[in-house]
Design brief:
The complex is a heterodimer. In chain A, 39% of the residues are buried. Chain A is mainly β. In chain A, the strands form two sheets. In chain A, strands 2, 4, 5, 6, 9, 10 and 11 form a seven-stranded mixed beta sheet that branches. Chain A has a four-stranded antiparallel beta sheet with strand order 1-3-8-7, with no helix packed on it. Chain A is globular. Chain A starts with a strand and ends with a strand. Chain B is built from no helices and twelve strands. Classes of the chains: A mainly beta, B mainly beta. Chains A and B meet through strand 4 and strand 5 of A and strand 6, strand 10 and strand 11 of B.
Chain lengths: 117, 113
């Protein structure tokens, strides 16, 4: 079954304790992206990746890191989480035909709900 | 850079009534436009998208949206809603040749019996 998986689904942590949220897709998609969803703000893009070893900042990258060492995986790293990073996080992936930009359907994971105390 | 404005945060409507969810965007380049739907406690799913060609696009479950370049709008409509359409709907835009996707704040559609 084609899917995007995220782990963990729920996480409670404390300020400053490093954490990683994993994201994996089995559709051989080039494009992967992380979003955070907050009430009244919709989804805001944190980072995206056009392919292995190619990443770039979205609109709200502060406090986050990503890596793309393999095509299927795109982990989100919070080196020193703070309470303002409490949010619902979504990973997404899509095809990225050369030169066309993100015109393809994005497939979303089930979300990771993070609470930073 | 692009931006998206969804003009209504909540839209209550009775079952079998028509509905319109409004979306306006701004961009200095040509755009691709999307509507995604999020059912409670789930991730987002694509509802429909405009890439080029016909300005009216349709989904398999009766929704349609029309791209209006002069008004920079991409409103979503359905002539008769069902209880099962209760969800949050997000309008999104990405610029041709770019790599970012910008989402609106979402419109919560609540269909009442």
């Amino acid at each position: 079954e084609a899917q995007v998986t995220q782990n963990p689904r729920y996480l409670i942590t404390v300020t400053g304790k490093k954490l990683t949220v994993t994201c994996s897709q089995n559709m051989n998609h080039e494009y992967m992206s992380w979003y955070r969803q907050d009430p009244g703000l919709g989804l805001r893009q944190i980072y995206y990746s056009m392919n292995v070893e190619v990443t770039d900042k979205g609109d709200v990258p502060e406090g986050y890191k990503v890596s793309r060492k393999e095509k299927r995986n795109f982990p989100l790293i919070l080196e020193s989480p703070s309470p303002n990073q409490t949010s619902l996080y979504f990973c997404a992936s899509s095809l990225l035909p050369s030169g066309t930009g993100p015109r393809e359907t994005q497939y979303f994971g089930p979300g990771t709900r993070l609470l930073v105390l | 850079a692009q931006s998206v404005t969804q003009l209504d945060s909540q839209v209550p409507v009775f079952e079998e009534a028509p509905v319109e969810l409004r979306c306006n965007y701004s961009s200095s380049v040509s755009v691709y436009l999307f509507w995604y739907v999020q059912y409670p406690n789930q991730g987002l799913q694509l509802l429909l998208k405009y890439l080029s060609g016909s300005t009216l696009v349709e989904s398999i479950n009766g929704f349609e949206a029309e791209f209006n370049k002069s008004q920079t709008s991409f409103h979503l409509r359905k002539p008769s809603v069902h209880i099962s359409d209760t969800a949050e709907y997000f309008c999104a835009v990405s610029g041709v040749g770019g790599f970012k996707t910008i989402f609106g704040a979402g419109t919560r559609l609540f269909v009442k019996a």
